[in-house]
Structures are given as structure tokens and as C-alpha cells.
Amino acid sequence: MASSEEDGTVEEKENNNKKRTKSALITAWLTFYNIAMTAGWLVLAITMMRFYIQKGTHKGLYRSIARTLKFFQTFALVEVLHCAVGIVRTSVIVTGVQVCSRIYMVWFITSSIRQIQNEESVLLFLVVWTVTEITRYSYYTFKLLHHLPYFIKWARYNFFIILYPLGVVGELFTIYAALPFVRRSGMYSMRLPNKYNVSFDYYYFLIIVMLSYIPLFPQLYLHMLRQRRRVLHGEVIVEKDD
Amino acid sequence: MSICLPLFFSAGTERIYLLPSTTMSRTTFFEVEIIDAKTKEQLCFLDKVDPHSTIGDIKNLFYKSYPQWYPARQALRLDPKGKLLKDNEILQNLPVGTTATMYFKDLGPQLGWTTVFFAEYIGALLTYLVFFFRVPYVYSHTYAFTSSSHPVVTFACVCHTLHYMKRLMETIFVHRFSHGTMPLRAIVKNCAYYWGFSAWLAYYINHPLYTPPSYGELQVNYALFTFVMCEMGNLSIHISLRNLKVDGLRVRKFPMPTKNPFTWLFFFVSCPNYTYEVGAWMSFTVMTQCLPVAIYTLFGFIQMSIWAKGKHKAYLREFKDYPSVRMAIIPLIF
């Protein structure tokens, strides 16, 4: 046994060990993250249900869950980091767009425009988001633990067919309801003249946001449909290359 | 020289026959089969192809059978997922037997680079002028066809217009393009970018409520000076890059500083043309003190940094003696 040969195999083993500990740590973190998020959204769901049962109305519901919602929805930014670093194999852009649109909805529309917090559309998208997120995070959790019940997989790739459009309806109606209040208060807006020679009208910005759903929503929806076909039916999808 | 026999001699899939030149004795002829990359159906079969023909020649022959697919929009590959074959590659140097199978893909309508650049720059130039002259309906009707009282607004218009005129001149007289064409979709995207930003910046600079820079004439004059310097620098670099390609197509060399002091930036960066371009736009930002201009400069900087990094890496790969002190776009930084 030449010493060089021994060094070679020892180094290899060390590298393999390093890789294994690294991937074990990554799996541990991801599992923890997904369990935590599932728990968080479950808490939200239960709080919402209790509120509705106790009060019999959805008025004031948003205020009661606002802080928890902000926390868990914002924390989802970590997922963009996961994609960027490579420990989750999804496109950074797709994840980024989805997380950012949620955070935008929570911080810059619902939380900042009090007058619309009791709208029915808010309840609608809250319910949709809660169901979607619980399904999604429990799917990831079970997958990481290598014990994926078929029901969860089925739910993850089928619920969205109804939930996604419903969520979009809720969001759009909420933004639309917010428009008159934004116009009246002139919030987040900047007018000329000013030192930086720029202006920003949040009212028109919101209209552009609403219009942007038209090209973006079909693309995301079709993306999910394609994924569904691949996962549930094992079809090989030929991607159209540019 | 090969001769194409009229197509009425063919039957079934198009066959084109090439006769050898009389000076060539027994050469093994190649056969080229062209297959649609998606449907896998045979589109064309070329018989008796000269082994010295290039991919460009084959594209021309294919074009004869399918006149809707001019050579610029043909993408030929040896494998459906393989690399694109270049026009100057020679058939016999390819890793094929005497029967070559190539996969064809339609790249869509193509436009020459010159056409693209023209559209982008003329659009940007004219769009700005629409705002400068305060064409009706752009601003409130009381301001239609009036002009701003601030001299900086006039300077800005002159700078912007000269910048794009310079680019147009360069497109005609200076630049030599390595790739011939660009897909149609790209021109729409690029024009939207150039025209859109031009409109956005012009709107604020030429606005009746425009606020001149905080430090007044001093700020404007300094910025104007650096703007002109950067434009001259950018032009010098473009000219020196053009001169690089003049002598000999085989000998490849990387750009070096010349007697022109503006080219001395080559000591420090691989792509000083981008450095000067960023400098020009930063000067324009300071001169107009306008946030949209700053945002445009930032976007341009990000895009040009990506291009500069790519070019820098290509130089490092190709030339072993490439100066190590050179960075991609910002001296001593990156």
C-alpha cells in the first residue's frame, strides 16, 4: 500500500464526508423551514376560523391576523435565497416574482390602506393563500422526509386549478377597491416640481399593476399546468426553445 | 464552380445536383440530408456536394428549395440539441461521414444589425425632440410649443441628440458587425427599451416644472465638460477597435493603447468604450439632476458590465499574454 495511494483515498473520503455533512445540513435546514412555514400558515388558518366562528363576521379579521401574516409571508423571501444559492432547483425569477407579488400585496396594499381591510375580496385571497401555502409547505416537508402521501401530492398539483384564479380575483378586487382611497390621499406619490425632477403617481402605478396580471397570470398558470402534467402523469414536455 | 440543374429533374423530396468543376479529378462527393429538427421529416436531400463547400453554400442551396427561409434565418446543427454550425465551416472538416445529416430550425424573420441600430437610435433621438419642442398633448396645452427658460435644458437636448447622431454615424462608418442578423423579436424589445427610456427622461427634463441643478452653472458646466470628454473617448475606442480588424483576418490581436490619450484607458480595462459610455451618462445625470436619467444610467451600467465581463473572459481565454492589470470595465475594481 503506497502512502500516496492511501492519501488519495483518504482525501476522497474526506471530500465525500464533507459533501454528505453539507447536504445533511441543507436537508435539515430545509425540513425545519418547511415545517415551520406549514405550522405558521396552519396557525393563521386556525386563527381565522376561530375569529369567524366567534364573531360571525369577517370584519376585523384582517387586523387580528395582520402581524402573523406579515411575518410568515415576508419570511418566504428566504425561498428566493434558496433558489439563488442552488439548494432548491427552481428558477430564481419565478420564485422571486411570486414572493414579491405576495409581499407587495400584504405590505403595500392591504396593510397600508386601512379602509379596504374589511372587503370580502381580502377574505377571499386570505383563504386561498392559506390553503395553498399549507398544501405547498407540507408537500415539501413530506418530500424531504421521503414519506409523501399521494393525497398531498394530488392536492398540491390539483388545488391550484381552482385556487389560483380565485386568488387572482381576490387580489384584483382588493386593488380595485383601494384605488379611490389612494387617489384621495395621494399616498406613496411624489409630484413635480422637486429637486430630483421625478414624479410618481401610486394611483396609476396600481392600475399598471392590475393590467400586468393579464400577461403574467396565464404564464404562471400554464407553468403550473405543465408541471402538473409532468409530475402526475409523467409526460415528457417538449419546451419551446427561443 | 458547381452548377445546379433545374429542379424539374427531381422527384419526391427536392434533389439538387451539383456538377464538379472540370479541373477537379475524382473527389469523393458528400451527400447532405436536411431534416426538420422538430418534426424529423426530411426537407431536402443534396446529392454530389463538393466536400470543400461551406455551411453558407449549403444554406444557399437549401434556400433555393425553400425560398421563404433565406440563409440568415436558417439554423443548421449536426445534432438537434447540438451547437449551431457556423457559415464558414467547411463540410469535409465536420465530424460526419460522406453522408451528412443536418437538423434545420427556422430562426424566424431576421433583421440586419444596421437596420436594428438605426431604428433604435433614430427613435430615441426623435422621441426626445418631441418633448423638447413640447409638441401638443405632451404637457398641458398652455405650454405647447414653448421652450424652457433654463439653458441646461437646451444643453441637455443638444447632448442627447449629438450622442445618438454620433451612434448613427458610427453604425454607418465605424462598426464592423461579426454576426449578420438579429431576430425580429429582439428589435421590438430593444426599440421599446430605447424609445421608452428616451421618452421618460425627456418628459422630466423638458417639463415646465423642471428644477435646474442645485449647484447651478458650476454643476452644469463641469458635467458638460466630462460628457464631451467621455463621448470623445468612446469614439476613439470605437475607431481603434475598427482598426484592429483591418489588417488580416487570420491574425487575432487584442486592443492596445495608441498615441491617442483617450485610448490609454486600455491600460486599465478591456472595454473602455463601455467605461466611457457609463461616464457620459453619469455626466448627463449630474448635468440634468434627474432621477430617471440616473436609473437609465444604472440599467445601462448593469447591461454593459455583463457584456464587458464576457468580452474580458473571452480575451483572457484567447490570449495567453493578456495583461493581468486589466479589469473588465472599471479600472482596478472589476
TrEMBL record, chain A:
Compartments it resides in: Endoplasmic reticulum membrane; Membrane
InterPro entries membership: Tyr_Pase-like_PTPLA (IPR007482), Tyr_Pase_AS (IPR016130)
Enzyme Commission identifier(s): 4.2.1.134
GO cellular component labels: endoplasmic reticulum membrane
Main location group: endoplasmic reticulum
Pathway: Lipid metabolism; fatty acid biosynthesis
A single BP term in Gene Ontology: fatty acid elongation
Catalytic reaction annotation: (3R)-hydroxyhexadecanoyl-CoA = (2E)-hexadecenoyl-CoA + H2O; a very-long-chain (3R)-3-hydroxyacyl-CoA = a very-long-chain (2E)-enoyl-CoA + H2O
Source organism, top-level taxon: Eukaryota
Stretches of the chain forming a coiled coil according to its record: none
GO molecular function: very-long-chain (3R)-3-hydroxyacyl-CoA dehydratase activity
Parts of the chain that traverse the membrane: 32-53, 159-182, 202-222
Topology of this chain in the membrane: Multi-pass membrane protein
Keywords: Endoplasmic reticulum, Fatty acid biosynthesis, Fatty acid metabolism, Lipid biosynthesis, Lipid metabolism, Lyase, Membrane, Transmembrane, Transmembrane helix
Family that this chain belongs to: Belongs to the very long-chain fatty acids dehydratase HACD family.
Protein's job: Catalyzes the third of the four reactions of the long-chain fatty acids elongation cycle. This endoplasmic reticulum-bound enzymatic process, allows the addition of two carbons to the chain of long- and very long-chain fatty acids/VLCFAs per cycle. This enzyme catalyzes the dehydration of the 3-hydroxyacyl-CoA intermediate into trans-2,3-enoyl-CoA, within each cycle of fatty acid elongation. Thereby, it participates to the production of VLCFAs of different chain lengths that are involved in multiple biological processes as precursors of membrane lipids and lipid mediators.
Descriptive protein name: Very-long-chain (3R)-3-hydroxyacyl-CoA dehydratase
Species per Swiss-Prot/TrEMBL record: Cyprinodon variegatus
